[in-house]
Design brief:
Layout: E1 6-11, E2 14-20, H1 21-27, E3 31-36, H2 39-50, E4 55-58, E5 62-65, H3 73-81, E6 86-92, H4 96-109
Antiparallel strand pairs: 1-2, 3-5, 3-6, 4-5
């Protein structure tokens, strides 16, 4: 947000987290979400060619890459040039609601 400098997340009347705007931005990681034909090969190439270990493999051949959000073409081009079929590529940004829901899920699972 351009106005708020600190946030407090409240669940059932209790503050569950206080956080600065900068810390919140760091925790709400943007990512490049890619869908590929071969996630195993794609993650190998991410690590070997781009020295990137900041990713998460999801179902349906989807990978969230937490680097290169400013220039996702780096990831896309590298995968294509190395024989990985890229079905889609999008920039995802977490928002306050998603962050809050993640907090509630962590609290409920604790």
């Amino acid at each position: 947000s351009m106005i708020a400098t600190n946030y407090a997340f409240i669940d059932q009347g209790r503050i569950i987290e206080k956080i600065s705007d900068d810390d919140l931005k760091n925790k709400c990681n943007d990512c490049v979400q890619i869908v590929v034909d071969d996630p195993r090969k794609a993650t190998f190439l991410l690590e070997e060619k781009l020295q990137c270990k900041e990713y998460m493999v999801l179902p349906d051949n989807t990978i969230n890459v937490y680097k290169f959000t400013e220039d996702p073409c780096v990831v896309n081009n590298m995968l294509i040039l190395n024989g990985v079929s890229l079905k889609s590529s999008n920039i995802l940004s977490a928002n306050l609601e998603e962050y809050f829901m993640k907090l509630i899920g962590e609290k409920d699972n604790a």
